[in-house]
Design goal:
- The chain is of the alpha/beta class and about 280 residues long.
- It contains ten helices and seven strands.
- The chain has helices at about 15-30, 30-45, 55-65, 80-85, 105-115, 130-140, 160-170, 195-215, 240-245, 265-275; strands at about 70-75, 95-100, 120-125, 145-150, 170-180, 220-225, 230-235.
- The chain has a seven-stranded mixed β-sheet, sandwiched between helices.
- β6 and β7 (about 230-235) form a beta hairpin.
- α2 (about 30-45) runs antiparallel to α5, α3 runs parallel beside α4 and α6 runs parallel beside α7 (about 160-170).
- The chain binds S-adenosylmethionine.
- S-adenosylmethionine (SAM) binds near residues 77, 100 and 154.
């Protein structure tokens, strides 16, 4: 079911998952999101699990409102559940750049996006995501201009998307990476039974999650909603600060932790890091 729990099964109890959806997410779901979800099921049956579930959508929607987000980019649209979820809370003059190589799937959701009266906020680009992002950055006009980026396209390319999208979101802006717990497989061991596809994805997401956890350019959290959602907030970091964090001379974290420094270089590093962690 699109927007249903089949996508993730992250929570150990299916009954609890069902309870969350039935008690809160589905009753509160916007009527056109519900229709889009149902149209996706009708057209794509099992593939409809590609959409984010309704509770993940609620989280994204609330976050966008709290951030006063106005300009966003979405990489991987499918029928547009997460796109409509994003378009609804943006202001009337909000803008979303939405990229997917598959226009046919987008057109399944488009009538519901139009009914919701938010299609004017969306600029859909049919393209391979990586080549489009590279061109966008080469153009130079859009760097550091997006409040939010939602990444849900080719899983093998997440690491490459990260480097590009980090340039596109503004300092303080947020990037959401979908599916980062990959059906819970990230917690399985090598010896556990999995098909080749799951094994490959498990390895990719384990590598990606470990990378993000150490990336000094962002503050991030990995949430067990849907199939896993990682939210990253871009920090203002100088090259010097990044080098100091990577060399272990200043601590990683969401705020400075003073202590244990021995030399002037470290004191200066801590002062720079302190200023930058506050951004
Ligand atoms: C999981 S679905 C996106 C679902 C959507 N975010 C939602 O929650 O409703 C992934 C989408 O990424 C698109 N995609 C996969 N690889 C891509 C690529 N290299 N470039 C552009 N789009 C790609 C697929 O066509 C598919 O529509």
């Amino acid at each position: 079911m699109a927007g249903g729990r089949d996508k993730g099964e992250i929570l150990a109890s299916q009954a609890l998952s069902k309870y969350i959806l039935e008690t809160n997410a589905h009753p509160r779901e916007h009527e056109h999101l519900k229709e889009l979800r149902q149209a996706t099921v009708q057209k794509y049956q099992i593939l409809s699990i590609m959409n984010v579930p309704a509770d993940e959508g609620q989280l994204i929607s609330m976050m966008l409102k709290l951030m006063n987000a106005k300009k966003t980019i979405e990489i991987g649209v499918f029928t547009g559940y997460s796109l409509l979820t994003t378009a609804l809370p943006l202001p009337v003059d909000g803008k979303i750049l939405a990229i997917d190589q598959d226009k046919e799937a987008y057109e399944i959701g488009l009538p519901f996006i139009r009914k919701a009266g938010v299609d004017h906020k969306i600029d859909f680009i049919q393209s391979d995501a990586l080549s489009f992002l590279n061109d966008l950055i080469a153009d130079g006009k859009e760097e550091g201009t997006f409040d939010f980026a939602f990444v849900d396209a080719k899983k093998e390319d997440y690491m490459k998307y990260h480097e590009l999208v980090l340039k596109l979101v503004k300092v303080g802006g947020v990037i959401g990476y979908d599916d980062t717990l990959w059906f819970g497989t990230v917690a399985l061991s090598e010896a556990d039974e999995m098909d080749d596809h799951q094994r490959r994805r498990r390895a990719q997401f384990r590598e990606f999650n470990s990378f993000l956890a150490k990336d000094p350019r962002i503050e991030c959290c990995l949430l067990s909603v849907g199939c896993g959602l990682t939210l990253c907030r871009r920090l203002m970091r100088s090259l010097l600060c990044i080098m100091l964090v990577q060399s272990g001379r200043v601590p990683m974290g969401n705020g400075p932790q003073v202590g244990g420094f021995k030399d002037l270089g470290r004191v200066i590093g801590l002062l720079i890091a302190y200023q930058e962690f506050r951004t």
